[in-house]
Design brief:
Low-confidence stretches: none
Mean pLDDT: 96
Shape: globular
Radius of gyration: 13 Å
Strand content: over 45%
Number of strands: 11
């Protein structure tokens, strides 16, 4: 049974930091490209960051470049997103996505940036 379980979201003040985690099971995590995708209230899905299976190629949306860092630990079957210098516009439900031939999605973790 495939599972992606996100955690680490919460309420943080502008300028603060959070680290999201995505624990994967039920598939060969190391063989999949992984991404973080977010959905702000009343908006569509926005791709945030991606990392290939080998961990050396990482990509970021312009809106988060220089502030967010994606990483993965294939030994722990876990994907991470370190988010620094958070802004109110980063408020969203953050999803973990695994892609190879098919897509797998987690249930999301809420990030709220507000003073």
């Amino acid at each position: 049974q495939v599972q992606l379980v996100e955690s680490g979201g919460g309420l943080v003040q502008p300028g603060g930091s959070l680290r999201l985690s995505c624990a994967a099971s039920g598939f060969t995590f190391s063989s999949y490209a992984m991404s973080w995708v977010r959905q702000a209230p009343d908006k569509g899905l926005e791709w945030v960051s991606g990392i290939y299976s080998g961990s050396s190629d990482k990509y970021y949306a312009d809106s988060v470049k220089g502030r967010f860092t994606i990483s993965r630990d294939n030994a722990k079957n876990t994907l991470y997103l370190q988010m620094n210098s958070l802004k109110p516009e980063d408020t969203a439900l953050y999803y973990c996505n695994a892609r190879r031939v098919v897509d797998y999605w987690g249930q999301g973790t809420q990030v709220t940036v507000s003073s």
